Amino acid sequence: MAQHGDSEPLAGPPPGAAPPTPGPEWEPRAGDRRWPPPPAAGASAGSRSTVGDARSSPAPSGEVVGGTSFLDVPGAPPATRRDGWAWFLLAVIGFVVGELVALILVTVAAAVAGESSQLTAIEKMASPPEWYVGVSLVGLWVGFFAAPWIASKARGTGRFVADLGIRFRPVDLFGVVIGVGSQILIDVAYAPFIHNSKSFTAPTTKLTGSSHGWGFAVIAVLTVIGAPFFEELFFRGLLFKALARIFAPAGAGPSVRRALAVVAAVVLDGLLFALAHGEWAQFVGLAAFGMVLAAVSYRTARLGMNMVSHASFNLVAVFAVLSSRGVIVH
Fold first, then answer.
1. Are 182 and 314 a contacting pair, CB within 8 Å?
2. Preceding peptide of 170 cis, ω within 30°
3. What is the pLDDT of residues 252-269, one digit of tens each?
4. What pTM was computed for the model?
């Protein structure tokens, strides 16, 4: 006789017996408030494969299947306009929290470095010290990560990776072309005006201007790897999805109204992306790139190609600094 756990299959119910009542295995995972839908009344155990369960059904991440956008996937978070507003509010709170955490960490780091009395002057520097740049970025990213996490738990399925679309595919390497191409196009567009704008290179200078040696390498890693991950998670994984759900009309299926809603979400996401950077000389270029990234996230319904594009975009800026210095470590 086979013991419990052996490979011999368990016997089914006797002929004519009523189908068993769905047990816990039918229920979604903790936090999965909408996906998958519960079995229909009277469904038999044999219908389990058609209904699906939380462990075998695709996560409601909005992943494109057969040309379907995340707006057409039932239960894909944010699932309702109300959830979209909740995600948007969490994005605002997350940005504010990130700024506050950055301020606290900078204050602590300044005290450790014995620079507390110079902190005000350091904040106004065109090329602040490496510790100031690194700590500021990490503090801001705390908010950029916490907001999407809470949104997934409170107004999503609770599956963070699936809800935000953190997936990569080989085709995402095309993001290198998008990132490098966007940087080149923006440089060409700005070329007639660069000689009139001394602050055009201010963002890159502020990040890397005073760093040298291994410090420059650390800042470069934060810029090329850290920034693309956290910013795409926040601006496209959280904010853009919130805006798209808020603007899009209720009901699945493509329509002129939904197309206009998606365009509005793309444009607003790009503008907010540029606004958050606070670099007015580069506002138009950053807004345009933000819109490109929002469009990419909508078409792919994941963040892989976005992160590759963003990393490539930033890498070009780092290489521009290297070309003026010659080396990273010396």
1. no
2. no
3. 677 899 999 999 999 999
4. 0.77
